[in-house]
Design a protein that fits this description.
Blueprint: E1 24-30, H1 34-45, E2 50-54, E3 67-69, H2 70-78, H3 82-87, E4 90-99, E5 102-113, H4 116-125, E6 131-135, E7 138-142, E8 148-152, E9 157-165, H5 172-177, E10 181-196, E11 206-211, E12 219-227, E13 230-237, H6 244-251, H7 253-260, H8 262-268, E14 273-287, E15 295-297, H9 312-332, H10 338-345, H11 348-369, H12 371-408
Parallel strand pairs: 1-2, 1-9, 2-6, 4-11, 9-15
Antiparallel strand pairs: 3-5, 4-5, 7-8, 8-9, 10-13, 10-14, 11-12, 12-13
Bound molecules: flavin-adenine dinucleotide.
Organism: Methylobacterium dankookense
Keywords: Monooxygenase, Oxidoreductase
GO molecular function: FAD binding; kynurenine 3-monooxygenase activity
Length: 414
């Protein structure tokens, strides 16, 4: 168990933490993922005393986000966490996009690739001194309009004016606090991650995004990108886990990708996985009763999104930015009642970010599942269009052929 570092600042106590000896922190953050760490840094930079409670000393080595855009890195930069994040990230500058079986465009796009656990550990190591970190499991909570109390499994107790729940997909603390989770879409997305022996040498900083072609029902796209010394692949599908398509992919990943994306194989060669294939099913869930005294929920703990859309971290950092903007006013007056907390969930930027992420997550799935129909329509439309064009060309040629004959016809005598 890690004890608070000796050099950490002692929080000022300006209210009685419910008859306990525990010092009163301004903010207690539970969960050391990207949301919890960023919020802890943001609050500390505003001069708040912050206690961060992490379940483990390092982030579990699990398959999570592997890319985000320069705007997310910009948020980390502003929080003083960007240098740590950049140290474990591979910068990407160009997207090569393939659709309908062929290359359609190449464009500039500043992004970063990383292994999420390494990114989180690097960000955690860069936290400002104003954040006190402890490792442990919350066993009991007592929350209210003034003081929030947390008791860890080993008996340590901590008090704070505001409790921020940033526990991602972990449900235990949410249940303990009485939050209800609604399953918006069960098994919404099935994502695969693997290293590849990609035969086409991606130039440093280039990534390829290839949409499944006609017949690739249930597959959104494959993306290939450099991550450190490897070429990494993420395949985003809407297959049910353990279903026929998922099993067929695991049995023959190379053959399945060639069948789903023959245009990719023609343009760049076969995609061969190297080493283990990681597989991760994702449910879309959201909290339905978030507003209560003293407690705020951020990041995936509040709602999850489809990773094919790639905005999980953007949404988590948007939560952090919105909440951080409200903290000065919240701490300027006594109490941390539901009216203050409610203003976070009603904030237009939060509402817009949630609606966009969840809305697009569901729309992407619907569109992908209907891809065969759409593709058939598009290909029928382009056949009709091509035939129409051909008819115009033929008619023009006919006219041209007829014209010399016409001009050679002796003019009628005036
Ligand atoms: C396969 C996959 C691919 C993805 N790809 C992308 C992508 O390309 N781009 C993108 O932007 N997003 C992507 N996402 C989503 C992104 O990973 C998440 O949105 C983001 O990591 C959420 O961060 P968070 O801090 O809210 O949660 P987390 O990172 O899950 O952090 C929560 C932390 O809380 C801890 N915890 C849980 N319970 C407790 C407890 N009781 N006490 C203390 N600690 C606790 C956990 O151990 C964890 O450290 C992907 C997700 C998956 C699964």
């Amino acid at each position: 168990m890690i004890q608070p570092e000796a050099a950490d600042p002692v929080p000022e106590s300006n209210a009685s933490p419910m008859q306990t000896e525990a010092p009163l922190y301004d903010v207690l953050v539970v969960g050391a993922g990207i949301a919890g760490l960023s919020l802890a840094a943001a609050a500390a930079r505003e001069g708040r005393t912050v206690l961060l409670i992490a379940a483990r000393d390092t982030h579990p080595r699990e398959f999570r986000a592997e890319k985000f855009s320069s705007s997310e890195m910009g948020v980390l930069d502003r929080l003083g966490l960007g240098t740590g994040a950049r140290a474990v990230a591979t910068p990407l500058h160009t997207v090569i996009e393939g659709r309908w079986g062929r290359l359609i465009k190449r464009m500039a796009s500043q992004e970063f690739a990383f292994h999420y656990p390494e990114l989180v550990d690097a960000v955690r190591a860069a936290l400002p001194r104003g954040v006190t970190s402890v490792t442990g499991r919350v066993a009991a909570t007592a929350t209210g309009a003034d003081v929030q109390m947390l008791t860890l499994a080993d008996g340590r107790r901590f008090a704070g004016r505001l409790l921020v729940v940033a526990t991602g997909l972990g449900e235990g603390l949410q249940r303990e606090l009485g939050f209800e989770r609604r399953l918006v879409s069960q098994g919404n997305t099935l994502v695969y991650g693997f290293n590849t022996a990609f035969t086409y040498a991606l130039l440093a900083g280039e990534q390829l995004i290839w949409s499944a072609e006609a017949g690739g029902d249930g597959v959104a796209y494959l993306t290939l990108f450099p991550l450190g010394t490897q070429i990494r692949a993420n395949l985003f599908t809407y297959w049910p886990r353990g279903g026929t398509a998922a099993e067929a992919f695991l049995a023959d990943p190379t053959g399945t990708m060639r069948r789903l994306m023959p245009g990719l194989a023609r343009a760049y060669g076969t995609i061969e996985p190297v080493g283990a294939i990681q597989q991760r099913p994702i449910d879309l869930v959201e909290i339905t009763n978030p507003v209560r005294d003293g407690v705020v929920v951020i990041g995936d703990a509040f709602c999850t999104t489809c990773p094919a859309y790639g905005t999980g971290i953007r949404k988590a950092l948007s939560d952090v930015t919105v909440l951080a903007s409200l903290l000065p006013a919240w701490f300027a007056t006594p109490g941390m009642g539901a009216a203050k907390i409610g203003s976070y969930y009603k904030h237009p930027k939060k509402v817009a970010a949630d609606q966009l992420s969840v809305g697009v997550s569901l729309r992407l799935r619907r569109m992908t599942m209907g891809r065969d129909l759409v593709s058939r329509f598009l290909s029928l439309r382009s056949t009709v269009y091509r035939r129409g064009q051909q008819a115009v060309v033929d008619a023009a040629a006919k006219l041209r052929r007829a014209a010399p004959a016409a001009s050679g016809t002796p003019a009628a005598n005036p």
